[in-house]
Design goal:
Elements: H1 10-26, H2 33-48, E1 56-59, H3 60-72, E2 78-79, E3 87-88, H4 99-111, H5 116-119, H6 125-138, H7 140-143, E4 146-147, E5 150-151, E6 156-158, E7 163-166, H8 170-176, H9 178-195, H10 200-203, H11 209-214, H12 218-232, E8 248-251, E9 266-269, H13 271-277, H14 284-296, H15 298-308, H16 314-330, E10 334-338, E11 341-344, H17 347-359
Antiparallel strand pairs: 1-7, 2-3, 4-5, 6-7, 8-9, 10-11
GO molecular function: endonuclease activity
Organism: Azohydromonas lata
Keywords: Endonuclease, Hydrolase, Nuclease, Plasmid
Length: about 350
């Protein structure tokens, strides 16, 4: 087996960030598709890539499925509740409504389903993904790398029908800078929608627009919380003390690090513990229990996710956690143990993932 390519150098990583900044500054964004594509590629690099310099081949259908999840909530009417504003599906294109969004709206009306998880078992879902994949292939995949009056193919190359390949070093950079890519894409996405004049009658000043576009609904979180109480009992995952009536549904791997909801990543916590942990990774004693839990209770957690309309994939959750801890270890990060107590993230953390993979 030939040796794998090493990670890109510090200079190559800086060059990648420079081109990414140019893409946002100089690109032509007539719709929100390019922002969605960047988010999808970054997510898939975390889910499927590795911390080396190897290229990563992707099926365009995988990207199409990510588009379904990204635009699903946005296919619902948005309303502020303020006087003088109406309700409606937000326009995501400077011309006609985005074809991806229109396809999802039509599918939901026909199929009568409320979540992407329910949609996946509907007979017409494959056709929906096929249509959206064709749109993604013809538009954002074709034009994302056009900026500054030229084409700079620094992210991927087309391999023919149905396949693209992230270039050497790109998957590593998307993993390394995943929070930044997400933040930039989402911020520009929100700005694009607010700037569209056809949305003004709906939006007003719309301070919660980003939550509506990208966050899990309160109703879904409540269902997750109810399911976790039944599964784990009314105890805080971190301090193991009784919860009482008050409990937070916490992202074990922080949402700020990987802003995508996965059912196996949720735990119940005291509000105090949740606030103290904040946006940090949890210490090794918590990681050991979390890894054991998502293996032993994988099916029950998947059922909770299905009932709440949230994706459930223990393998992806485990890979995301491994990526997060490896990135933190490489940068000298610390993990939260308890209130005001932290410990260094070292190779022993990463060994937990290797040990579990060996047992599996």
């Amino acid at each position: 087996m030939p040796p794998r390519l090493p990670p890109p150098s510090a200079e190559a990583q800086l060059a990648f960030l420079g081109k990414l900044q140019r893409l946002f500054a100089e690109g032509n964004f007539t719709a929100t598709y390019k922002f969605a594509l960047l988010i999808a590629l970054a997510d898939l690099a975390v889910d499927l890539g590795a911390d080396d310099g190897e290229p990563l081949e992707l099926a365009t259908r995988r990207i199409g499925e990510r588009f379904v999840h990204l635009y699903w909530r946005q296919s619902m009417p948005y309303r502020t509740g303020r006087s003088g504003t109406g309700a409606g599906v937000l326009v995501q294109n400077l011309g006609e409504q985005a074809a991806v969004l229109s396809a999802i709206v039509a599918f939901r009306a026909q199929a009568g389903v409320s979540t992407p998880q329910q949609a996946a078992s509907h007979p017409a879902y494959k056709e929906l993904v096929t249509r959206i994949t064709a749109t993604v292939s013809a538009q954002p995949l074709q034009y994302l790398q056009n900026f500054g009056g030229t084409t700079d193919a620094f992210l991927y190359e087309r391999l023919g029908p149905g396949r693209v390949r992230l270039l050497p070093g790109v998957a590593y950079c998307l993993r390394r800078f995943h929070p930044l890519v997400q933040q930039l894409a989402r911020s520009h996405w929100v700005t694009h929608i607010k700037a569209n004049r056809r949305n003004h009658a709906i939006l007003d000043d719309a301070g919660d627009l980003e939550d509506f576009l990208f966050s899990t609904s309160r109703q879904s979180l409540e269902r997750i919380g109810e399911g976790l109480r039944m599964l784990d009992g009314a105890r805080c995952f971190y301090c193991c003390e009784a919860l009482g009536a008050a409990a937070d549904v916490d992202h074990y791997v922080p949402f700020s690090l990987y802003p995508r909801d996965l059912a196996h990543n949720f735990v119940l916590a005291h509000p105090k513990c949740n606030r103290s942990k904040s946006d940090t990774l949890a210490a090794r004693m918590h990681l050991e229990r979390w890894l054991e839990r998502i293996t032993r209770r994988a099916d029950e957690l998947a059922e909770i996710g299905l009932s709440a309309g949230i994706a459930a994939d223990p393998t992806t959750s485990r890979r995301v956690a491994a990526w997060g801890y490896a990135s933190a270890a490489a940068s000298g990060g610390h993990a939260w143990l308890s209130s005001a107590k932290y410990e260094a993230i070292d190779q022993r953390y990463l060994g937990l993932f290797d040990a579990q993979a060996t047992r599996a």
